[in-house]
């Protein structure tokens, strides 16, 4: 291929800019032309497309968000939208597409693949819930952002001998809660992948206090329930005045960590390698510490994301 | 005096530990003995008091929270509680007291002063709402914490062309909202000290978009109303889908900034100077960039906190 | 005035972009046109000048460095260079100039003023060594950057029971060393404004160890001597194996702190106020917590910078 | 086993405290007793040993350095020292030892193993140069610290259109340079594992400027040569005025990242699992994203560390 394009779609994630930069730089290095599509699939359908040059991505590696903007665009679920998108790409002479995003973005990439358009998906979502990879772009930054908040909340929790419930993102996945919880020394982690018993939650708080613990921090994945509801339920089991903090969109921003920038760079460059060889229909991942490509149809239809639930047990053993 | 004590009370603030450290180190430097009281006025009444030595405050300057713990203790509003506290101090041979905290803490210090017990108040609250000082210990750290969150939220707001309402602390004062809002480049700042008109808020969002702004960030002081209520009200004026982030207790933690550590150190050392000379009944402040002492009775009964509302107008001129 | 320009010159400082943004936004708010000059006085003389619009400064408030670039340009010390610069400004119809920078930049602004060209200087240098102001743009960020490094070095110093000499910037001023030293809990601070006796430095290290201190951190202002030389001199007084860290240019970068952004915004907007009224020949400062303007000729010819040396004594009392 | 001990040795690394905490908490969870040895092998030989309880490691997960202190102790290379150490352990009834550290620490663990004492090594060094693992405790934090400095230096480099040489740690390994260089968008990375040609370094700087790059950042691993020497050599190839920054010990400190805390927790808990089963003579690692144990004799005598040099090529393709 001689001319490719890149778009970001769905929720933004730190490192998306680093991935775009890698696609652009690697494509130029290989003598290809590269185009950026604004606002994800919405911009694709609308033809909001421009050529990208070396300096367009200068200093982009350190920036959070995505300079190509993102958007949710349910209309792309229709065949009409998809064909319109392919038409736009062809109009610009673009032969292959790199899509960076999460679940919804991948479904778009899958549709393009089924229409025969060479597309490569890069997993970019802080939720880390994409099949075909152990880690997604943005996850490492997000867990460090949450960790930073947990460290701050612990100052207050310790000073006041309090219980805090910290609701974190992750959609239906517990990855953020698990990693941030273990690294933040949270006394309890509540995730969708593991049943929990509120009576036990209450008992552990009491036991911790008896052991001399000055704080109890419970990290709660949003996929289980929201923080205020959890606090109410907990209160039914005794006089537990828990403060609730909902970290919210702060988790999606920030300058990416070293890992996220390296991972994004590896993915971006590798995507260009495949397109250069004319290969599409793939999604990239890092599995067992190696960058790999899988068939996007297989991965989405048969694969599933498996969080590292061994961390759950680890935390119960060392953070109580 | 030869023997003094220190306590922290009310909501914790970054830099309280730096202030305690300065009290301890300066007292030892002056040949005095110094005691720490745990859990604020509650510990004072209960006699939870221990001597502090040079190494007890080693490396404390960098830590958030307060290693003497804090507590709200409404019982100290009664004369009985106050006299019990003084009795405990006398039992330990303690001749003067340094109280670090906010509004409620100051009222306790005022009561002790009225009973004739030499007490000095140091303003420690992220809300920055204490009379007698331009800045309180913890405020500088808090505005930088909020700023960090605003920078992160802007990544997402820009990437998605969205409106965000960010609710920040401050009780009835708008200081955090003002300083964080100006420094974060927030399009609008809503504070208790200034009336606002929701129709105008809505108009400005629309105008910003027309100017090509990719994001609208509204920093809302909690003293006005809560973020979700604000979003609902805004929605009445048009199709404004604003995301709400409530930063919460994260704002109260964290390693203190350079300014907060220096200010806390200045306050702590100065408090010891006064107690050494036998002077109590004072509260310290930084006014016009100078460390000063004021009569605590006068200050609390006649003084008032005045936020820098010039920042409000400044922001309207440069951030729209 | 209807048309003004802004340049940054000399060493860059965090917050310069925030100041440029405030000049641009305030000028537009006042109905004026505003131009940016690239590469400081070099670009002025060369006519590297372009109009700036609302979106040119979007998101600039959070960025370190200066997007107008900076340069040292000794040729501007000649009358020829100065007249050439004024000619360029007139060619573009520019009636007044805002100069953001340190010592050398101010001398350029002084020269333009003496030639009758309306110029306003804003103090922007991490060294904080400009007369007419208590604080310069960039200083607050720099001391927090140094503080962050001191906190990290203390981890290692404590773990290994070591002595560290940390050389910090400041040219001939000790401000960075003083503020970072006090806030970092450095055992000793060595600044140009205070004589020091190496024998005493050595004695204090020994005394600290005897008191049980696990680390000795000496913050050394570059204006005294360089770190390696200091370590050598110290070694003559006994078996002191001090590690040396030279923080270097890291101190000049980074996203500005809340204070630096607010200060820069206040300065930038105020400069436009004066130029709008046709007033030049001024330099702005924050003195006793108030934004003021002084005559630039008086300030540079008679004024002098006075660091807060009270912090020196404070540190000796609380950090030994 | 019923009673085990833990020590940290060699250069400190962020996450060592998290690893100690995990050893302590997991041992208590398993009903074992656990002892801490101060000052590494020096303290082992001297018998500077104390029991550790649940609260001794409270809040330790977030702290840089090692609260058990570390020391280099060449005397432990002698058989006499080793036997003395084992004698001390037996005196305290300690049946197994966890050693956290780098190269030298592992050699000590190897010696103890050869004497038949059950010992488990955990890789803790920012240099990441230990065989038997892809990543060492502390490496992730160190690369993020370096990255933060690179981002700051880029502000200045861009503002002044300059070349910077940034010397980073790593002993004979290029890992820090590789990861920080790629993530920092450094134009060139110089590591011991790859030959370099100074003429080519010079040519690339010139080419970058011609492409419009505003900065050139060269990340130099200390194992190649020191930064000043490199700058001198470079100058022989043309008028390249490169600034040199030697990041130094800042790289070894700081609160550990989420990854380092999780990795340290996994290692610490796993080490206890093995000792509980009576197994020693192992060193732990994370290989292909899985926690594994290898025979320490085999690993040290036959194994070697292999940095991810694919990153070198990647950087050449996307950062020039």
Automatic annotation (TrEMBL), chains A, B, C, D:
Physiological role: Catalyzes the phosphorylation of D-fructose 6-phosphate to fructose 1,6-bisphosphate by ATP, the first committing step of glycolysis.
Protein name as it appears in the record: ATP-dependent 6-phosphofructokinase
Obligatory cofactor(s): Mg(2+)
GO cellular component: 6-phosphofructokinase complex
Binding locations of ATP: 11, 72-73, 102-105
Family in the record: Belongs to the phosphofructokinase type A (PFKA) family. ATP-dependent PFK group I subfamily. Prokaryotic clade 'B1' sub-subfamily.
Subunit-structure text: Homotetramer.
Pathway membership: Carbohydrate degradation; glycolysis; D-glyceraldehyde 3-phosphate and glycerone phosphate from D-glucose: step 3/4
Pfam families, sorted: PFK (PF00365)
Biological process according to GO: canonical glycolysis; fructose 1,6-bisphosphate metabolic process; fructose 6-phosphate metabolic process
Record's catalysed reaction(s): beta-D-fructose 6-phosphate + ATP = beta-D-fructose 1,6-bisphosphate + ADP + H(+)
Residues annotated as binding ADP: 21-25, 154, 185-187, 211, 213-215
């Amino acid at each position: 291929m001689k001319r490719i394009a890149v778009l970001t779609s769905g929720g933004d994630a730190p490192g998306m800019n680093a991935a775009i930069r890698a696609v652009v730089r690697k494509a130029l290095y290989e003598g290809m032309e590269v185009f950026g599509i604004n606002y994800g699939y919405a911009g694709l359908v609308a033809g909001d497309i421009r050529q990208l040059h070396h300096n367009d991505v200068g200093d982009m590696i350190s920036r959070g968000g995505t300079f190509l903007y993102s958007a949710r665009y349910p209309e792309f679920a229709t065949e009409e939208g998809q064909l319109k998108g392919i038409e736009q790409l062809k109009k610009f002479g673009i032969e292959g597409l790199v899509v960076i995003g999460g679940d919804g973005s991948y479904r778009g990439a899958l549709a393009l693949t089924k229409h025969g358009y060479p597309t490569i998906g890069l997993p970019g979502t802080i939720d880390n819930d994409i099949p075909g990879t152990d880690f997604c772009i943005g996850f490492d930054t997000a867990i460090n952002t949450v960790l930073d908040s947990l460290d701050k909340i612990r100052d207050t929790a310790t000073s006041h001998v309090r219980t805090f419930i910290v609701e974190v993102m992750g959609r239906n996945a517990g990855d953020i809660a698990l990693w941030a919880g273990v690294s933040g020394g949270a006394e309890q982690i509540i995730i969708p992948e593991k049943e929990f018993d509120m009576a036990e939650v209450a008992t552990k708080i009491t036991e911790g206090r008896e052991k001399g613990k000055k704080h109890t921090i419970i990290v709660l994945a949003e996929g289980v329930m929201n923080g205020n509801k959890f606090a109410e339920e907990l209160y039914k089991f005794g006089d537990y005045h828990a403060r609730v903090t909902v970290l919210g969109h702060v988790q999606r921003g920030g300058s990416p960590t070293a890992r996220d920038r390296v991972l994004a760079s590896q993915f971006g460059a590798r995507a260009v390698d495949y397109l250069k060889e004319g290969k599409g229909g793939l999604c990239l991942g890092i599995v067992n510490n190696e960058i790999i490509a899988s068939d996007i149809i297989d991965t989405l239809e048969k694969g599933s994301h498996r969080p590292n639930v061994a961390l759950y047990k680890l935390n119960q053993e060392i953070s109580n």
